[in-house]
Design brief:
CATH architecture of the largest domain: 3-Layer(aba) Sandwich
Helix content: 55-70%
Distance between the termini: 59 Å
CATH class of the largest domain: Alpha Beta
CATH topology of the largest domain: Rossmann fold
Strand order of the largest sheet: 1-8-7-2-6-3-5-4
Order of helices and strands: HHHHHHEHHHEHEHEEHHEHEHEH
Largest sheet: 8 strands, mixed
Length: about 475
C-alpha cells in the first residue's frame, strides 16, 4: 500500500510539472511569432505617420464631413480585424494542417471581412480624390497604431504566461495509506451497484433527451433559416465568475475587461450591425431578442450599446424587458422608474432617461413591474416613445423580451431597423429558435442575423486577443411582480 501511494503521488507531481512546462512552451511559441512581427508592424506605423504628415503639410485645410469620419471608423475596424485574423491564420499554418477546422474557420472569417471591405471601398471611391487620399492615409495610421499596441499587450501577456509556474490543474487530495484495511460487505456493494446503475441509466436517458436538438454550431442556424451569424461570442470566464458571485454592483465586461475575447467578438458584432444599419432607410434602431430566456441578450445589449457609444455616436439603451429586466446587472440603473411608467401614464420620456451612465451612453430603464406589460407595449403607445428617441439619439439599442414566452418583442420589432437573435451555445433547442424566427417574420420585421453567445470551443489555447407553457410559467406571468 505504501508503494502504491508513493507511485500515485509521484505520477500526480509529474503530471503537474508537465502541465506547467507545456503551458510555458505554448506561450513561448506564440511569443516568438509575435516578436517576429512587431518590428515589421513598427516600421509600417512609422511609414504611415510620415505619409500622413506630409499630406497635411501639402494641404493645410481639408473639408472632413461627418460621412468621412464614419467611413474612417468603419474602415479602421475592418482593416484591423482583417490583419488580426491574418496573423492568427499565419500562426495556425505553423500549428495545423490546411484542412484543420481552426484554419478553415479563419479563412472563412477573412473572406467575410474582405467582402465587407469591398462594400465600404465602393462608397469611398465615390468621394472626391482629396478626401479619398486623406481617408486612406488616416486609416493606415489608425490601423497600424491600434494593431501595434494590441500586439505589444499580447506579447507582454505571453511573457507572463511563459514565466509562470502555475498550472491549470491541481491535486485535490494526495494518496494516503489507511491504517485499517477495508472489509467489503458484498450484499451492500451489490445493492448499491444495482440501484446506482439503474439511477445512472435513467439520468443518462433524461440528459440525452434534454440535449437532443440543442444548437451546438452556428452553421446549423444558417442552414435552417438562411440567416447569417453576425458574431460568435466566446464564453467569458470573467463574466461567469461575476455571475456566480451575484455581486450587487453592476459589472460591464466591455468597460472592465476591454481586451478579452468576448469583447473583441462584440466589436465585430458592432461593426456588422452598423453596416446593416447603413443599408436601411432610417438606420437608427437595433433590437436584440432571443427565442427563450437565459440566452444572454441583456449581456449582449448592454455591452454592444457601450461599444457603439465609445466610438462617438449618442446611444440610447432601452430596457424593454419589463417582466424580467437584467440590465441593472451591467449598468447602474437599479430600482429606477422607466419605460413602464412612461407608457402607463403617457409621460415625457426625457426625465426618466439616465444620461451618460458612460460617455455618450444613456439608458431608459424598464421601470416598475406591472401585472400587464402586454397592455403597455402596444404599437400606439410605443410610437411616440420611438419618435422621441429617434429625434434625440444617433443609435437606439433595444433589449427586448424573448419571443416564445410573450408577444412583446414582436410588437417592438415593428420599430426596429435591424434585429439580432441571441442564441446561447447548447442552451437553446434549434426547433425553438426556428419557431421564434418564423413568428417574428410574420410581422414583416427584419431579422438581420444571429449572435452565437457563450461559445465554448473544444480546445482552448493561447490566442491574441408543451415547451411554451414551461417558458411562460418562468417568465413573469400570473400575479407575481418584478422586485
Amino acid at each position: 500500500p505504501q508503494a502504491a501511494a508513493r507511485l500515485v503521488n509521484a505520477l500526480a507531481d509529474a503530471y503537474l510539472a508537465q502541465n506547467v512546462q507545456r503551458r510555458a512552451a505554448e506561450a513561448d511559441k506564440s511569443l516568438q511569432f509575435l516578436e517576429a512581427q512587431l518590428p515589421e508592424l513598427r516600421q509600417q506605423l512609422e511609414t504611415a505617420e510620415v505619409a500622413l504628415n506630409e499630406f497635411r503639410n501639402r494641404h493645410q485645410t481639408i473639408d472632413i464631413p461627418g460621412e468621412i469620419t464614419a467611413l474612417l471608423s468603419q474602415t479602421v475596424e475592418l482593416e484591423k480585424h482583417r490583419l488580426e485574423l491574418d496573423l492568427r491564420r499565419r500562426d495556425a499554418q505553423a500549428r495545423y494542417e490546411p484542412a484543420h477546422p481552426i484554419a478553415s474557420a479563419l479563412r472563412d472569417q477573412i473572406a467575410s471581412v474582405s467582402a465587407q471591405q469591398k462594400r465600404i471601398g465602393d462608397r469611398i471611391r465615390a468621394l472626391p480624390k482629396l478626401q479619398q487620399d486623406y481617408l486612406r492615409l488616416a486609416r493606415d495610421v489608425e490601423v497600424s497604431s491600434q494593431l501595434y499596441v494590441s500586439l505589444l499587450n499580447n506579447a507582454q501577456q505571453l511573457r507572463v504566461a511563459r514565466a509562470g509556474t502555475i498550472a491549470n490543474v491541481s491535486i485535490v487530495d494526495r494518496a494516503v495509506v489507511t491504517e485499517k484495511a477495508a472489509k467489503p460487505r458484498r450484499a451492500l456493494v451489490v445493492a448499491v451497484g444495482v440501484l446506482g446503475g439503474a439511477a445512472a441509466g435513467f439520468l443518462l436517458t433524461q440528459l440525452l433527451a434534454a440535449m437532443r436538438g440543442r444548437v451546438r454550431d452556428p452553421g446549423e442556424l444558417e442552414a435552417a433559416l438562411g440567416i447569417h451569424v453576425s458574431a460568435t461570442v466566446p464564453e467569458s470566464a470573467e463574466q461567469a465568475t461575476i455571475d456566480k458571485r451575484k455581486l450587487k454592483e453592476p459589472f460591464l465586461l466591455a468597460q472592465q475587461r476591454p481586451t478579452v475575447g468576448a469583447v473583441e467578438a462584440l466589436r465585430t458584432l458592432r461593426l456588422n450591425l452598423q453596416l446593416a444599419l447603413a443599408d436601411t432607410e432610417r438606420g437608427r434602431t437595433i433590437l436584440l431578442t432571443s427565442a427563450i430566456p437565459g440566452q444572454g441578450k441583456s449581456f449582449v445589449s448592454a455591452n454592444l450599446a457601450f461599444l457603439i457609444a465609445s466610438a462617438g455616436p449618442r446611444v440610447l439603451l432601452i430596457d424593454a424587458d419589463i417582466r424580467r429586466s437584467s440590465i441593472e446587472r451591467y449598468l447602474p440603473v437599479h430600482g429606477e422608474r422607466g419605460i413602464s411608467d412612461i407608457l402607463r401614464e403617457r409621460l415625457d420620456p426625457a426625465p426618466f432617461v439616465r444620461a451618460d451612465v458612460a460617455p455618450n451612453l444613456s439608458v431608459l430603464p424598464a421601470g416598475d413591474g406591472v401585472d400587464n406589460p402586454g397592455d403597455l407595449l402596444t404599437e400606439e403607445r410605443l410610437r411616440g416613445l420611438f419618435a422621441w428617441a429617434n429625434e434625440h439619439y444617433d443609435v437606439i439599442v433595444v433589449d427586448a423580451p424573448p419571443i416564445l414566452p410573450v408577444s412583446d418583442a414582436v410588437v417592438l420589432g415593428r420599430f426596429a431597423d435591424v434585429t439580432a437573435f441571441v442564441v446561447r451555445h447548447k442552451k437553446a433547442a434549434q426547433a425553438d429558435v426556428v419557431d421564434a424566427v418564423h413568428q417574428f417574420r410574420l410581422t414583416g420585421a427584419p431579422v438581420t442575423g444571429f449572435v452565437f453567445n457563450g461559445f465554448v470551443p473544444s480546445r482552448v489555447r493561447h490566442g491574441y486577443g408543451g415547451r411554451y407553457g414551461y417558458y411562460r410559467a418562468g417568465y413573469g406571468y400570473g400575479n407575481e411582480r418584478r422586485a
